[in-house]
């Protein structure tokens, strides 16, 4: 006799596998931890296998769990496609999405592609600008959804992931050894004040060698070994990379990728929000080096 797997339990299983734990998965699914745990237990009982290795502090997949994960993703994708095609209304209009340039790749393009497939009659317009400008635009209602890089979320912001900042310079460069230390930050850089304060606290004299509102001016002087800069770990302009300073420079701090949404009762915006959450929560790897420009 044919037996059926529960889609809800599969969705919880995939969320736990992607987020690395029941707590994060419960937050993403808007369920209690006990509800997610119960769904996982039912799935294991239905298959009569152990899907998760719970012997360590972090949850990992067993061999059977890894095998199921691929099937589960395909089943959920097909389920969601069927539901969208047969029940979705023909939404129209325009959505403005704001994203700083250094976190566009590699996740925003697939999100845009998936969104366009689900809402073919909705026009997506993307604005790339520094966090400060995006927050201002969002406050004026000029953006529907924005992603920002901030140390702490502002009112209404949802922190998706926390990533370390690192000092970067020209590949093989020596600008970091100079004193005063030549640094480059555009005027709108959200990291600027915090990083400079850390240099002051470490009693390191510095000299700002760029006076520009544009990130590409910063990238030019850093790649030319005329200054150094602080960037999200793994996201570096071409011809630059992390500086192996062996503790000579202070820790530049960390940044959070924060999501802001104008209306959480709009089905189009909430769909886009969920796509963004899934991409950044499950896929971001700070060990991965992302080159920003060809």
UniProtKB/TrEMBL annotation:
Domain (HTH lysR-type): residue spans on this chain: 5-62
Keyword match Chaperone: no
GO molecular function, one term: DNA-binding transcription factor activity
Record keywords, A-Z: DNA-binding, Transcription, Transcription regulation
Family stated for the protein in its record: Belongs to the LysR transcriptional regulatory family.
Protein name, as recorded: LysR family transcriptional regulator
Source organism: Litoreibacter halocynthiae
């Amino acid at each position: 006799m044919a037996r059926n797997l529960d889609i809800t339990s599969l969705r919880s299983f995939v969320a736990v596998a992607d987020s690395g734990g029941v707590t994060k998965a419960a937050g993403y699914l808007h369920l209690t931890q006990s509800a997610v745990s119960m769904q996982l237990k039912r799935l294991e009982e239905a298959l009569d296998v152990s899907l998760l290795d719970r012997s360590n502090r972090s949850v990992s997949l067993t061999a059977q769990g890894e095998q199921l994960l691929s099937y589960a993703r395909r089943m959920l994708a097909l389920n969601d496609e069927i539901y969208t095609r047969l029940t979705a209304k023909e939404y129209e209009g325009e959505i403005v999405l704001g994203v700083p340039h250094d976190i566009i790749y590699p996740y925003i393009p697939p999100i845009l592609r998936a969104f366009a497939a689900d809402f073919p009659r909705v026009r997506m317009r993307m604005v790339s600008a520094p966090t400060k400008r995006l927050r201002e635009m969002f406050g004026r209602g000029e953006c529907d959804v924005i992603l920002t890089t901030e140390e702490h979320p502002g009112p209404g912001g949802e922190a998706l992931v926390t990533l370390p900042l690192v000092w970067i310079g020209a590949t093989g460069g020596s600008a970091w050894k100079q004193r005063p230390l030549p640094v480059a930050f555009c005027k709108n850089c959200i990291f600027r004040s915090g990083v400079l304060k850390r240099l002051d606290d470490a009693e390191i004299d510095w000299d700002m060698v760029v006076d520009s509102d544009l990130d590409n001016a910063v990238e030019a002087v850093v790649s030319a070994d005329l200054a150094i800069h602080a960037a999200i770990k793994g996201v570096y302009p071409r011809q630059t990379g992390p500086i192996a300073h062996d503790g000579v420079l202070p820790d530049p701090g960390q940044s959070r990728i924060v999501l802001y949404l104008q209306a959480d009762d709009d089905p189009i915006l909430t769909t886009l929000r969920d796509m963004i959450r899934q991409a950044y929560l499950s896929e971001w790897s700070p060990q991965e080096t992302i080159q920003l420009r060809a």
